[in-house]
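Sequence and structure are no longer studied apart. As an example, we show below a sequence and the tokens encoding its fold:
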Amino acid sequence: MDERARDARAEVQDFLTSRRARLSPEQAGLPAYGRFRRVPGLRREEVALLAGVSVDYYIRIERGDLSRASDAVLGGIAMALQLDEAETAHLFDLARGADRTARTGSVVRARTVALRPSVLRMLDAIVDAPAIVRGGGFDYLGANRLGRALYAPLFAHAAPNSLRFAFLDPAARTFYREWDQVAQDLVATLHAEVGRHPGDPALASIVTELSECSEEFRTLWAAHKTCGSTAPGSSACTTPSSATSTSRSRGWICRPTPA
């Protein structure tokens, strides 16, 4: 374990133990048996009971292992420890940081790898239906003959990307018969991807780019940022930025719209 990971675990441990120590059984609605307790505040077993998780699992979390904790588990711990809004946000931030430390490097590397020959052969073998391969950044990495024919306007671009096509290419409005629904679905999927991989620079880059270039994207993204997150204190959303000059990105024409 490197020094950064050790520091992150120590921060989690200090935060959770200090919040557990300040909360008495009476404040948590639990009976306090006996006049003397060996630990100040709640025991780990009591926090686990209140949070609805096993004792062993909570012990692992309090020792700093937040990398795989779900939003439901984090929310249960926040309620068990009676964290306020700022403390709950901090707990979720700690979990995001732990997850980013554990996974971001491998995720980014995986997305920059070209399709393996075996995948290309599999695509070519599918002759009676369209088939495409989409990358984590919404890039279309490959397709069979029918797939390229079906998505011909998208593959007309040097770097096919479903998000850029939908929001930056006027042809998308006629290609998708229900463009409004497609746009909403794409933004919802992007929001979920950013939530799973909050440290991914490719996702952050496309959010910033589309926010600069498309008023429709900026509106939909802001709506998801306001109401789409179910996790208290979640910091997964990327804030749209503004731009004042026309730019060209990866073959897509970007005309910034007023903020």
Residues 85-111 form the longest helix (27 residues). The first strand starts at residue 132 and ends at 134.
